[in-house]
Design a protein that fits this description.
3 domains, 3-stranded mixed sheet, single chain, alpha/beta, about 15% strand, 7 helices
Length: about 260
């Protein structure tokens, strides 16, 4: 797994150059055998129905869009030669895997328990996913980004996976097009940034004490930078009973969101 991390964290010269034109993934075609049954299923998920067109020769095309997604799915009759149920490895990115599971269960969807990968072991008897064929029960113990999953299928067996992503690898976010689906997602992003900042400062302080690089060992939290104390304090508050300061912060975000 360390090799995978090393490879994915390096940006090659080819990827640094901007493409000549934008190429945005818009549609994923999902092959189904029963259009009405599939329509009912994806509507049950709470996805937005964008289109339902019928034409001559028994032609039919239906489009749904998952909440917060810029890409949509299409299914129907005479829209793909693929066999029903043959679409596998369709990933839905979520910021909280357990919340996403609860939402699907509330909509009556049979979703798997959360699972994660087993280190560098990629072979096994489980259904394949991004890290191979070995699924370990439960969320990733360290709750690392990209490492927790859950899966479900539509009535034809087309396979969907939820993947929890809380922080993108370098180069994976376009600074000029990053958006949030709601004020809650934006507030959660702030909290994750605060937590990551606190962890970074703590690690830096521990390394300084161990190596003595700065020549001044850090022996107490008072010696830590003010930014660390501020972020750490806010993160501690957000993990407790939502005290007034954090509630005001969230309400301010909601107000700003609703006024834009």
């Amino acid at each position: 797994m360390s090799d995978l991390k090393e490879r994915t964290s390096t940006t090659s010269p080819e990827t640094k150059a901007a493409p000549a034109v934008d190429l945005k993934l818009e549609i994923v075609v999902v092959p189904v055998s029963d259009v009405e049954r599939a329509k009912q299923f994806y509507a049950k998920l709470g996805w937005r129905l964008d289109a339902d067109f019928a034409g001559p020769d028994d032609y039919r095309v239906i489009q749904f869009t998952p909440p917060g997604s810029n890409a949509s799915v299409i299914f129907g009759k005479h829209v793909t030669p693929a066999a029903p149920g043959s679409a596998q490895g369709l990933y839905l990115i979520v910021s909280d895997i357990e919340a996403a599971r609860k939402s699907l269960l509330a909509h009556g969807v049979d979703v798997s328990e959360a699972f994660h990968h087993e280190g560098d072991v990629h072979t096994g008897t489980d259904e394949p996913y991004l890290f191979g064929r070995r699924r370990v029960s439960g969320v990733d113990p360290e709750r690392g980004s990209y490492r927790s999953y859950a899966s479900f299928s539509d009535p034809d067996g087309n396979g969907w996976l939820l993947q929890e992503v809380t922080a993108r690898l370098p180069g994976r976010v376009a600074a000029d097009s990053t958006t949030f689906a709601s004020s809650a997602d934006l507030a959660a992003a702030f909290r994750r940034a605060a937590a990551a900042h606190g962890e970074h400062e703590s690690a830096t302080a521990a390394n300084t004490m161990r190596t003595g690089r700065t020549g001044t060992p850090i022996t107490s939290s008072r010696s830590k930078p003010a930014s660390h104390c501020r972020f750490k304090h806010r993160q501690t508050q957000s993990n407790s009973a939502e005290p007034g300061a954090v509630r005001e912060f969230d309400e301010a975000l909601k107000h700003q969101w609703s006024s834009t």
